[in-house]
Amino acid sequence: MANALRTVSKCGIAGLLSASRHGPCRLPHLLGQKMTNSTSSKVKVDLDPTTGVAVMCMQSPPVNSLNLELLTEFASTLEKLEMDKGCRGVIITSSVPRIFSAGLDILEMFRTSPEHCADFWKAVQEMWLKLYGSNLATIAAINGSSPAGGCLVSMACDYRIMADNPRYSIGLNETKLGIVAPYWFRDTMANTVGHRTTERALGLGLLYSPQEALEVGLVDELVPEDQVLTTATQTMGKWLAIDEHARQVTKSLMRKPTVDKLLFNREADVQNFVSFITQDSVQKNLGMYLKMLKSRKA
Ligand SMILES: CCCCCCC/C=C/C(=O)SCCNC(=O)CCNC(=O)[C@H](O)C(C)(C)COP(=O)(O)OP(=O)(O)OC[C@H]1O[C@@H](n2cnc3c(N)ncnc32)[C@H](O)[C@@H]1OP(=O)(O)O
User: Per the record's keyword annotation, is Magnesium included, yes or no (predicted)?
Assistant: First the structure.
């Protein structure tokens, strides 16, 4: 048990699981690597060595849609931070004005090959496993709209602070696209807001205003737009003031069953996604939704 808990503190919940199934946690070469002010194409990361807090900023205009590239970079950045002994907490935010993330990039699932869909879905799984199973304290600084996959990223954090701007929205709106949020999206939401609220939200494909999201517990706090990041930084101090080992093990106890469900069924989940998304009727729905997005501009 003591060994297992030590492994948790290095690798997060997913790391513990990979340790128990495949030997010691992966990517030992990343241990000790320092990341300060590194800039990559779609995720900028700033690690403050004095506080141990990193800010991961999605910077993929126009809408931070989660395509294969952004998802891969997101997951690998998080993995490096996880392995960095100088990092204890991560704040996730966006540099794109008015948008946190538009969710999964629909173009990755529309008229692409089954092989591409499978690779894309593996990247979505990987991002969620790393974030939801992270040992780091994680805060979403939601400084814009956050539909579907954007909402998933937010919910996978330990705490959510959203800009109090009624023009922004957040929620799992998949049914509005004629698609179905998979069970691990649903579980993440149910763990956040409870079963009944999730049932209604998913069934109706609800996108909540910040005030509504606060009321149902989808976000924890609303602040004026220009204070989202500073509030996230202050709040992180509270999470990091808790004994690290106690916080990490408690987080693992809360999240491990949900992480395990996907971790032990990844391949079946990929197959399920590919066979669903490649159906003609689903492709037609995605095509219509894309058309609708474009026609709103005109
Ligand atoms: C068994 C498994 C089943 C499958 C499970 C699949 C789970 C899926 C999860 C998802 O995340 S699906 C994606 C859901 N996302 C949305 O519904 C958001 C759609 N976008 C918007 O509502 C708006 O774009 C916005 C985010 C509110 C921003 O509005 P704004 O007016 O600022 O920008 P737009 O002019 O609308 O968009 C600019 C540009 O970007 C394109 N775009 C927007 N969102 C996406 C997206 N998610 N994927 C791909 N492309 C997107 C939009 O079409 C515009 O393109 P152009 O017209 O400039 O070419």
Answer: no
Distance 268 CA to ligand 1 centre (A): 27
β-bridge mates for residue 259, sequence order: none
Contact 89, 54 (CB under 8 A): yes
Q: How many angstroms is it from 285 CA to the middle of ligand 1?
A: 14
Q: In the chain, what are the domains?
A: 33-297 (3.90.226.10)
Residue of 116, 156, 161, 38 whose CA lies nearest to 277:
116
What's the pLDDT tens digit per position in 51-97? 999 999 999 999 999 999 999 999 999 999 999 999 999 999 999 99
Complex ipTM > 0.85: yes
Question: 67 in helix, strand or coil?
Answer: coil
d(CA 139, CA 162): 11
**DSSP letter (8 states) at residue 57:** E
Burial of 40: CB neighbours in 10 Å, binned 0-12, 13-18, 19+ = exposed
- Please say whether the beta carbons of 202 and 175 come within 8 A: yes
Residues 250, 247: Cα–Cα separation, whole Å:
5
HEC assignment per residue over 161-184: EEECCCCCCEECCHHHHCCCCCHH
Atom number of ligand 1 nearest to Cα 148:
11
Pocket of ligand 1 (CB under 6 A): 62-63, 65, 99, 102-107, 145, 147-149, 173-174, 177, 179-182, 272-273, 276-277, 293-294, 297
From the alpha carbon of 276, which atom of ligand 1 is closest? 1
- The first and second tokens of residue 295, run together, are 């026609």
